[in-house]
Every structure is written in structure tokens, then in C-alpha cells.
Amino acid sequence: MKTNYLLPASLKNWGWFILIPFTVLGVLVLINDWEPDYLTMSVPSMLIDELFVEKSYFGMVTNNILNEICAVLVIIGGLLVAFSRQYNEDEFIASIRLKSLVWATYLNYAILIIALILVHEFSFFWVMIFNMFTMLIFFIILFHWNLVKLKKSTDNAE
Question: Residues 81, 87, 88, 90: what is their CA dihedral angle, to the nearest 10 degrees?
Fold first, then answer.
């Protein structure tokens, strides 16, 4: 089956190598509110909306970039894991991939709807931050769970 939208299978290992440590680091950074001084620098910003400063567009702000580094690498690692071809990619694997993506979308938006109803104020901001990653994480979990179930069913059939 021709799947032009998938990345080479060899990139999946690189994805895991990036995804796991930077997910752990990102969670630890959020829990401990850790911001090393050497990562605080002036960075370009499209929208500047700070307290006691007039809102402006396109300028420089001082920011610790550890959160951004972790977020970007979690997304890149997740995309490499999620959308790298399986070594034995066929129509059945493609159908598992599609089914997992659909269920990840349903689950992601169900959680978002519940959060819209039950979470308010600044706490909702945190829900939206985590929501950036949940679709990708749900897909990876569901896809690999279904692959494990497929492997078990084929092992039992033999």
C-alpha cells in the first residue's frame, strides 16, 4: 500500500529517543517550576501582552525558553513516533492507524468538552496547554495498543 504521508520507519526510534526524555523533563519543569538562568534570554514575540505594559505586536521579550524547548521536542518526537511507517505497513495496519486516529480525536474532544463545562479561569489555560499534546499522545497509545492486540491475536492463531 502506498502511503506517501508517512515518514520512513527508521525515524520512529529517533522519535522515541526525543519524546520520552523531553516529556519527562517537561512534566518535571512544570511540577517544580524550574527555569535555569542560562535559558533566560530575549526572544522575538508576535504578541506582547504583559502586565503594566501596553499591548503591542512584534517585538522582543525576556523569557525562559525551557518550556518552549520541551514543548517543541515533545511535538517533534510525537510526530516521528506517530507518523513513521511500520516496517510491515499494509492495508490492515493503515486501517488500525485510521481507527486509532479517529478514536484519539473523539477522546481528545470529549475531554475538551468536559473541561469547557467544568474548568474555568486560569485552570482552563493549563487544560489548553495539555490539550496541545493529548491528541498526539492518545493516538500513539491507541495505535500501539491495537498493534499489540493484533500481534497477540496472530501469535494465538499460530
Answer: 60
From CA 68, how far away is CA 79, in angstroms rounded? 16
**Side-chain-facing half-sphere of 60: CA atoms under 13 Å:** 5
- Cβ atoms within 10 A of the Cβ of 93, count? 19
Instruction: Tell me how far apart the alpha carbons of residues 28 and 33 are, in angstroms, rounded to a whole number.
Output: 8
Q: pLDDT by residue (tens digit) across 67-98?
A: 999 999 999 999 999 999 998 888 899 999 99
pLDDT of residue 72: 95
Residue 84 has what DSSP assignment?
Answer: B
Over residues 26-54, the pLDDT tens digits come to 999 988 988 888 989 988 888 777 766 67
- CB neighbourhood size of 70 (10 A): 20
Q: Which residues of 120-135 are buried (b: 16+ CB within 10 A; e: fewer)?
A: eeeeeeebeeeeebbb
State whether residue 58 is helix, strand or coil.
strand
The cell for 2 is: 502506498
Cα 150 to Cα 93: distance, rounded to the nearest angstrom: 9
CA dihedral 5, 70, 14, 127 (to 10 degrees): -50
